[in-house]
Amino acid sequence: GGKNKGAKHRKDKRNWRREQDELQQERDAQDTTLKVTEFITVNELASLMNVSPTEVISACFSLGVMVTMNQRLEADTLTLVADEFGYKIEFSDADLEENLEEETPDAEEDLIPRAPIVTVMGHVDHGKTSLLDYIRKANVIAGESGGITQHIGAYNVKLEGGQRITFLDTPGHEAFTAMRARGAQVTDIVIIVIAADDDVMPQTKEAIAHAQAAGVPMIIALNKVDKPNANPDNIRQQLSGMNILVEEWGGNIQSQEISAKFGNNVDALLEKVLLQAEMLELKANPNRAANGVVIEAALDKGRGYVSTILVQNGTLKVGDYILAGKNHGKIKAMLDERGKPMQAAGPSIPVTILGLDGAPTAGDKFRVYEDEKEAKTIATKREQLQREQTLRTKKHLTLDEIGRRIALGDFKELNIILKGDVDGSVEALSDQLQQLSTEEIQINILHSGVGQITESDILLAAASDAIVIGFNVRASVNAKDIADKEEVEIRTYSIIYAAIDEVKEAMEGMLSPEIKEQVIGNVEIREVFKISKVGTIAGCMVLTGKVTRNSKIRLLRDGIVKFDGELESLKRFKDDVKEVTKGYECGLNLKGYNDIEVGDILEVYEEVAVKKKLK
Question: Domains of the chain (ranges plus CATH)?
């Protein structure tokens, strides 16, 4: 009987092991599934997968997608990137998206031609806004800080022939990559502005890459041809090196030499835009509920949340109930780009609307709902998902991280609370600031938002030792009072470069200074006197520089360091002195050291703190 008992025991053990293995496999499978919302940022994805954002960015690059840290990723890209790291993606808002997909396609007879949406892209200071100025016969530049565009502008222009074109003006500064990428996603045609007296710049190449990635036709505008040193052929040659052949050189990409300042050939450029639009056969149905894209959002003191949106299909009317991202509300008023009231806006028309309960993210899709209740339900669900996401992507200190910080010795953190006038700028700035993080100093953006700096921002800053940065916004009176009381620093900027440079300087100030030695003199020992109760006194001659009472001393014998320390006393004849200069004799004794011989050399040095630079 004993034999059977043992066999049964072994059998039970095997079964138990098998069950445990199956459970472990199930657990492992669960661990590799990430529940995310679509359009999660690169940074959030990285922290969910426990890898560094740079690894995710390089994975995206290898897939041919150019991204920055705070850029939102589309569903397909998310799935591919997560797959590279061995994770599966499950979209938790799939049911919400299904609600949106229930739209009926438009019948062919309902569609009528719509105005083309044209994005103007190119390097900073190559003349994008000047070109739009000439087309709109208005001066936008005057309203921009430092003469550079920092917001996406949207303008609808009526040409002399009665045709309309909608222009999106995207900033050219490299910090606005994410905003520029969005510009290329909502657009039909891209005008790439290149200055003929300059080269094809990295930002221009990036704009071309965005346009190609979005599969949008390009028109090259060679600006500043009126300048004496303009060389358009040089630009054409550089473009051909990038496999972009313009029509004059036998390619299929339209180009036009223009001067935005004097308006030369701008009408010819617009004709080419209309010709391209005709070939694209752009159509939309104005007789339905509107949908489209949010271009920009801001908080206005008197009017509440103001969103600039672009209607892509249908007609938007005052009084419609719309849902944009996780924000919803009834449209109280609609304004055109000059601030004049409008009652309705058809396809391809950009408008500014008032009435949403918050600032939607630039790039969010919006849609009009007949049923307010349905819109509110979806908005609440989206908000829940987003909150859940934020909680999951919040990184707490791990033992490894503490170990890394201890190993570094002097790890520092700079906490920042960031408020801006519009969503695009906040995103661009937080992206740039986070890229400043180094091994020794980590930058944490604790909170970023749109609107003026409020009391709650200051209280959060006080609780977490953060500095508050305002971009084109100021603090309210109460917030200022609290900031003075709590000694919270508020920095306000209107130019993005200035903000980045100052934060960089602040970080350099946080680095522990390097201590460097500076030799200030050499002293030769000529005589040695032994005095009881005092020790050995050296009679010396200062050969170079000087010796001071507080300096540090190194004793060298035949070039070998025998002692490193301080002076006990320094005398000239019988008087104590502070310093003795070159060519004079002096008497001195060393603190705690008496083995002094004639012919020894004393090296006199000081320790100087040198400010470290960020690598």
Answer: 2-99 (no CATH), 117-281 (3.40.50.300), 299-306+316-332+343-390 (2.40.30.10), 395-510 (3.40.50.10050), 514-610 (2.40.30.10)
